[in-house]
Amino acid sequence: MMKTIFLLAALVVSTSVDCSAENNSPQKQSAPDTGKKWELVWEDNFEKDGLPDPKIWGYEVGYVRNREAQFYTEGRSENARVENGCLVIEARKDNWEGHEITSASLHTYGKKSMLYGRIEVKAKLPTGKGTWPAIWMLGDNHREGTRWPDCGEIDIMENVGYDPDHIFANVHTKKYNHSIGTGRGSSIVMDKPYENFYVYALEWDESELRFYVDDQLYFTCQNDGTGVEAWPFDQPQYLILNLAIGGAWGGKQGIAEDLLPQKYYIDYVRVYKQK
Fold first, then answer.
1. pTM score, two decimals?
2. Under a CB-based contact definition with an 8 Å cutoff, are residues 26 and 256 in contact?
3. Beta-bridge partners for 106
């Protein structure tokens, strides 16, 4: 998502999703059975309606990156709220305070950082030409003066609405990133991730990053041992959940006139450490 750092009113009828309903979201499960034993460190099951828990989530605000069309708001329930057992991130064409399109980007910086372990996010994605939802991580040091991509970026899940069934994982460092043609990543095709919930997961240790959808491993990124420019992932990172509209990747084929509103549903976030 952090590829480059840059500081109508159509009504769409949409049904709400109940994340606690069995047909929409299978029963919340215990620690994953992935051949290793994991211990839960923290979780958010989004069980209390209202704004996201401020002890866990902060906000990015403004037009943040990638020439995206949305203005990210803070503490605005129209763009980020908990309802029916889900975190809902909603992109809207509502001309709020002069900003044509609004959305939300939530992060855990300063509240819940992590170093190694397993990160799981169970989600159902928005879709349509112009959407760009993501689950990703940046080094804490990015907010403390280290530039991108030196801080390290781990994209656990990215999806673009004009290619709706592809799920992408990418890793960016100073030595390996798309802007110099050395990016590392992969993708997997899933059955309608805009209609079905999937668990998007990262397993992270000193030697490699492993990316899963519903415990199906589809990409492994290994520490090549050449130092911090290739592997800055021995420092804490924070988690980001956002719904972008348009931008360098999401808007590559434009933004559909009737796209908005769009909702991004997150059933839970869980972080484990290895026992």
1. 0.91
2. no
3. 59, 241
